[in-house]
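Researcher: I'd like a structural prediction for the single chain below. Treat it as a standalone chain; there are no partners to consider.
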Amino acid sequence: MARAPELPSLRASVPRLASCAVAAKLRVPSLREVVIDFGIAGSGRVSTVAVNSASSGPLQSCIAANMRRLKFPAFDGQLTHARYWMTVQ
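Model: Treating it as a single chain, here is the predicted structure.
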């Protein structure tokens, strides 16, 4: 998967995403990495979110709520996929 440039809206959301990961780490101490796979519609809105390959659960719900607030530049096309990951210590 090609690496897309980070956009200001994604960088600005990192503290909120990190707090989701920290809360999950308290519930699951073995959690080491959070992998966010998401789809961006042509409108620039995040339309799909999976976290560590899961499409439900407390971590996924928290991350998805924050990801869906993001607005990327609109583009011609239906959907593009992206991945963002964080290490949890």
